[in-house]
Input
Amino acid sequence: MNDLMAVPEWTQVRQKSGLDPLGLQAASVRLYQALLPGISNVTLRTRYYGLYAWLSEQYAKRNHDADSEAWKRTVRRAEALYALTAARANLEGEHQETGVAGVLWAQRRLAQHEGGAIDFAAHADPGADSTPYLQQAWGAFGAAYESQLREAGVLGDAEAHSLSVPTEIIGDDFSGVFARAAGEAGEKFLKIVKAGRVSLNTLDELAPILPSRIHPQSHERDAYERMLFAGYPDATENDHARRKTLTLVLRVIQLLGEDVEAGDMRWLLYAGHDWEGKSIEIPEPELETQRRGWWAYQAGDLGRMAYEALLKWLLDTLESYQSGLTTDQLIDAALDRLEVTQAGWPKTWSDLVAALPKAGHCLASDEPTSELALSWDVLEAGTDERQAPVRSAQAAIELMAVLTRQCADHRQFFANQHGGDHPDAPGRSFANELSFLDGQAGTPIPDLLRLIFKKRILQRHLWVAMRKLQYQRDYTFLVETHDGRLRLRAKDGPVATNPRLGPALTFLKDIHLVDENGLTKRGNRLASAA
Output
């Protein structure tokens, strides 16, 4: 009998960051998804919606093969060819094609080209040995676009197989208008996808199908507008939600008379007025309700950022004690560093909420207690190894107080938008934290901060991280416990979520409703017609 020795088999722990360390972000994500469905943060150009509908239809007509691997190969080859076409156009022209999946790989591939045909199949086919144009198995289609194409009604289910196919109304329309717009370049594109090789001259001939080449006077442009603004028959509730948000975006641009960046757009929708306090004209009740949804989203996101800044303050404090601290010792040290007595605050939480100076309006960047100014201070906490300034933690507390005051008259609407507000609910948002703070109105601020640090931040983070380890196998612990002492493992801090407004603005530019000067004539008509 052989003697066997059992030895442990160790597995590698892979630290992941940026994964919602307090579990407060999910509610914000759910809310902006409901406010702007059919577009995501990684669906970057409108024309992909037509491209995939057309490609799917042509694949069905020409291949008659429902094997998912065959369709995957076609999708990946098409995306790689599209990327090469965009990269070639960027080299040859003044206008840059942005938002094209795989374009960085394509740029490197063209830089290495030494003549002859480019074998892109070697970089696109599943299982190929060469560096892939994208790592995702299903490319940008599977990683980004398919879910939104289905959400927007462009793709749907087939009866005989599991592959997504164009829907009878929107999908077939998209396929047809894209085919007409592509013309001969479309037929050539399909032949090259099948061959897996392309010359530089042919890439130049494919340029008409690139994202920026949607003609302003075309059926293709009109079809994309109908989809984005719920113009097709049997529009769903989500279609109308998308229409309302995009109409609000047009109204904001109309008021300002200029193009607006995504980061500014979220603030303007939150405020309901411009930087000087002039109101956005929204006489329609359904649009104003939609704008209030964006107000609730932004308020919740600001509250979450405040909590994450306080988490960063705890992590920075713990960093100074390599041998670790007990929970109570860490909180004592964090409060000592926070300089609560020097902040000039009144005694209790309710007193602070009432006494904190009111800014003229929430976008008053020169007033230190406006939401905009406080958010800037909060974000100074950072997510990296540097120590956060004391002002970032103090601003987080003041921002929580301002939001408590601002949300007071709209608490039920705010709670409904975030899915409820019980302070101990399993699924949490800042609505839950407002409910918790309501119950601490008479608590002295140092005592309240002890509760927040211990119950709402440290214990919550450990619970969230444990669930992610248990169910997702992601190791997201920022602190670890050993012999009753906490030790720092990694740092994280406040970041704003990205609520799809960037891609939405690009879509509006793609279909010629917005340009560098603001709304086009067509954009003005659409904004006014709502």
